[in-house]
Amino acid sequence: MNIEFDAYKQKLNDIKPALDGLADSLNIEGLRNELERLHAMQEAPGFWDNPEKSQQIVVKCKNCENKLEKYKQMTGSWDDLMTICEMAAEEDDDSMLPELKEGFQKLTADMETCRLQTLLTGNYDRNNALVSFQAGAGGTEAQDWCQMLYRMYTRWAEAHGYTYKIMDYQEGEEAGLKSADILIEGENAYGFLKGENGVHRLVRVSPFDANARRQTSFAAIEVIPEIEDDSEDFEIKAEDYEMQVFRSSGAGGQHINKTSSAVRLIHKSGIVVSCQTERSQFQNKETCLRMLRSKLVEIREREHLEKISDIKGVQKKIEWGSQIRNYVFMPYTLVKDTRTGCETSNVNGVMDGALDPFINAYLNCLATGNWVTK
Predict the structure, then answer these.
(1) How is domain 129-368 classified at the CATH fold level?
(2) Whole-prediction pTM
(3) Domain with CATH 3.30.70.1660 in the chain
């Protein structure tokens, strides 16, 4: 049994350089200095005079503390696991092997998560993510697929400790949804989800076809960063958009607030945003303006060809047939990303929100440039 402990001791020594390297990648020393600066700001007189600004500082402080604590936990775990190896070898005690195996697996998983976070260096990667769902042509079949994707991403968000807010939700006539907009809130939400932007293709035996024929359905996902009001010199003038007020409708009482306060803004560029989940028309309008502003800033960045990889990674036209990922339910089960080559036969797991392998593969390809050549 000592052989196994020796093997794990070697594994721990092998990953030590990577663990030490994370200190530089995470800028641990810089985080400590930043935390000290933020604490000084919190202790300054009049700190709470501007509640919005002070809250932003509190959030930044918490983010710094979380990163420092996570790295401290990983280094502590490495020390503990090495101690187990040495103690077990000395005492010839194999009872600690399960603890060692579990601890090593968790440590390497935590290190990989931190490594991926170091790849999120874009200006907007830390931001919240505005995620839009749009069913493709095909009526009920496509709308059902769109709702399945909606469930998949909200499950992913919940599993990762993110919160999401429904901005707009348009149900299908018979089943599923025509379109929806949600705001996923939390650090790095956009950074992790930016690669999900594009067309998603489903192949399955249709539950809506009495003859049980195979159907192909499409739905488009748009992911853009929520951009703070004061982060860009970008003004939206009242004459640049038309405002429509409408009443929330449909059978989705669990999704939306059924009042006459729903707002739709139609910008002169053709962009349309809607919100029907706030309690008042004013709140819905303010939310629409934030969504519109984020979309316009994203388009401006893209048109100027500046930071284009930061905004949406690798650009692809959002058109039916240019899918970024295929989901096959029949005659076999397979989910495969057309850009990274990442694939799995665990369709049920993916539809329950197990998207990390695809997100991780995208971030790695984005960092290395090693995309699948079609």
Answers:
(1) Alpha-Beta Plaits (3.30.70)
(2) 0.77
(3) 129-368
